[in-house]
Amino acid sequence: MALLSLKNLSKRYLSDRGEWTEIVRISSFELDAGEQVLLQGESGSGKSTLLNVIAGIVAADEGAVTLDGTDMRALAESARDAHRARSLGYVFQNFNLLDAYSCIENVELGMAFGGKTDVALARKLLERVGLGERLNYRPDQLSQGQKQRVAIARALANRPKLVLADEPTGNLDPSNAAVALDLIQSLCRENGTALLLVSHDPSLKDRFERTIDLSELNEASSLLPGSEGLS
Amino acid sequence: MNSLSIAMRGIRERRVSSAITIAAVALACSLLMLVWAFKKEAEQSFAGASGGFDAVLGPRGSKLQIVLNALYHLDESPGLMRWSDYEQATKFPAVEAAYPLAVGDNYRGYRLVGSIPEYLQNHEYAEGRSFELESGGSLFASGSMHAVVGAFAARRLGLGVGDTFHPYHGLVYNEGAKHEEIYTVTGVLKATGTPVDKVVWIPISGIQTMSGHNPKAATDVSAVLIKLKRGASMAGFQLDMMYNKQGDRLTLAWPANRTILQFFDKISWFDKILQAVAALVAIIAGGSILAILYNAMNERKRDIAVLRALGARKRTVFMISLLEAVGMTFAGVILGFVVYAGLGMGIGEIVQRETGVALSPFTGNAAMLWAPLGMLGIGLLSGVLPAIKAYRTDVSRNLR
Fold this sequence. Notes:
The complex is a heterodimer of chains A (about 230) and B (about 400). With about 230 residues, chain A is α/β, with parallel strands linked by helices. The longest helix of chain A is centred in the last third of the chain and has 18 residues. The two termini of chain A are about 30 Å apart. Chain B has about 400 residues and is of the alpha+beta class. Chain B has two domains: about 180 residues, no CATH class; about 200 residues, no CATH class. In chain B, strands 1, 2, 3, 6, 7, 8, 9, 10, 11 and 12 form a ten-stranded mixed sheet that branches. The longest helix of chain B is centred in the last third of the chain and has 42 residues. Chain B is elongated and about 95 Å long. In chain B, about 45% of the residues are buried. Classes of the chains: A alpha/beta (about 230), B alpha+beta (about 400). The interface between A and B is medium-sized, with 33 and 24 residues.
């Protein structure tokens, strides 16, 4: 059985002009446990919305999102939050670290809502991403690449089944991007965690077992404003 | 890491605004307790500091002035009365004891009060409590040049047994108004928590015949303190009728403690102003919490969205925001107790210095419960609106 399964998924938004616009329409998609998949898509292809639907941050209007045997659509919002806290890790393009917290505290926050905070694990993860000497640094004391490494450690902190990565190298220079990707992929492998990474960078294709063109997967993307000419 | 620690971190991160809010809550809480609890304590202490007397007889004048002068050793005497008036008062069957007082001199600002030794020897200033001397002391004898010093005055003046001093004329200390007489301290009274503590006691003849005083007033007295026999409440009415309604030369302040309570009633408008100020400060403190947290929510939408993306439930971020409000209020309330204790002890010290009445800010009072709880309620209410804002934060829109 697939770890993640999307069936006849649809998500619409009410535009400023008062019209409903379908952002995501996916007939079928599956991701196995431990699998690493690259979703390639340009800006406006609905990738962030798709990841938010998978994460249960926003609810799908139609269809089914089954994560680790649980239909996210059948859950109440608070139950979706709890499921996300237990089963998912999230890596953002802008890192989204909390500036008021140190590196180790940011990683601890990744565990705070899914169970017990394990300081030893947080330290171990930061050591694993090469930041063992900067446990108590705050994000504003780190380089962009270091920030993303903290974010990667945070995403793995609750031992998730699946990590969602939304353009994780978008704000990094090539060398830091390579380090970040290596870390995400190797940490996911070490933990048996599946990875669904969204990026517009075609050079990443060779790193993944499976690459899917989001404009083909998301049948609504061709209808979205600014999506003309997407491959 | 839990909701409480996240909330506390939020408070710490906004150090300046949090400190101002906590200070405002502390000020409001301490003011509320001072206005209600401490004022009640002051009323009770003043009424209870009537020194075990039921009435004060004085020259024709204001009852309040007579009581303040004779019992609290404040204000001036409204005049003089004859020694025979004192003797007559002692002869009423319902009068258990009567003691004459004479005032008019001081030692370095502390009032010299002349009386008979029986006052300090026999009188109970409270139920079952008589005046006691510190070890090694003795009372003055009538007509002697000896003095017994109240505990507070002795401490302030640095007087002890064997010390000598010159009295000064008048109730206000004037270096140039020194009398020639020299008095020797023979005893220091143990603290009573009453105005007796701030007085230097000498034989009544000492005041009456002090050099420079009018020889014609050498037998006059300033007031007579009266204790009625137990169960002789009707006697008070009768004396009141006799002195105040039928007579026109003397005034009887009876019951003595009611006079002081009437004084508090007369200044109740001042209480109302203080109460209004305290309530206003409490409202401002609540508004401050609301404004700080509400504005902070605008700056923290991304942080809240990140917490939600990490799995925080809506009710968790609601609770974190509410805990920040309650946490600031709680810190303010704790600080409020410290401010209250500090102000209370400071005011108590001033009141004791001026009146001799001992006030304790730590006497149990309902206001010390409802004022902090009320502030916590205001803090909680003030936190609801920002918490709703946190609850409603659009995660996907604020995750960039």
